[in-house]
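REQUEST FORM: STRUCTURE PREDICTION
Request ID: SP-0412
Submitted by: Lab K.M.
Chain count: 1
Length (residues): 81
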Amino acid sequence: MELGLILLLCALIAVVTVLRAAQSIRHHKDDERGSEPGTGYHEVEANYHSGGGGGGQSYTFKVPRDPQEYAKQFIPRKRRK
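STATUS: Completed
RESULT:
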């Protein structure tokens, strides 16, 4: 009897998990990641903190909003025209 109850509970947990995953996928289906392409730049901030000593660094850099301009940054300078 105990084995049957355990199997039933496992099956119920699996069904609830699958239904919850399907609900989450449907809910976030139309959400777009990233941002719209355009002109100008995004400003990105990167922080690093090491341990309890409070040391670390902070960087801020600009990333072009235009995908073509962004891709050109990965071409070595010698090969750019």
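NOTES: The two ends are 76 Å apart (CA to CA).
Reviewed by: T.R.
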